[in-house]
């Protein structure tokens, strides 16, 4: 039997630990990364599998960050992409939300209120 049978270098499953000193610090978040036939000319598709309450992530896990569109080029590494996603968990970008109607009430409120919503939002993250 082939030990590499069923393995695909075009699909990655990622487990990302929540950053310390953030509302996400006690979570482990599952993401997937799909490399299309035009990679690296076009960016990979990266999505959260774990539900995450975040202004830059929508209800189906799509991530809003300019590294996936305006700032992407063939020299962007996967490390750059994962650093950008991790960075959003540390510092959200409320001026560029994916679901404006969902986050409009909080966009200009105190960060504390946003943190409380993140902490108490129902998620399916793996607890550590």
TrEMBL record:
<dbReference type="InterPro" id="IPR000608">
    <property type="entry name" value="UBC"/>
</dbReference>
<feature type="domain" description="UBC core">
    <location>
        <begin position="1"/>
        <end position="127"/>
    </location>
</feature>
<dbReference type="Pfam" id="PF00179">
    <property type="entry name" value="UQ_con"/>
</dbReference>
<protein>
    <recommendedName>
        <fullName>UBC core domain-containing protein</fullName>
    </recommendedName>
</protein>
<dbReference type="InterPro" id="IPR016135">
    <property type="entry name" value="UBQ-conjugating_enzyme/RWD"/>
</dbReference>
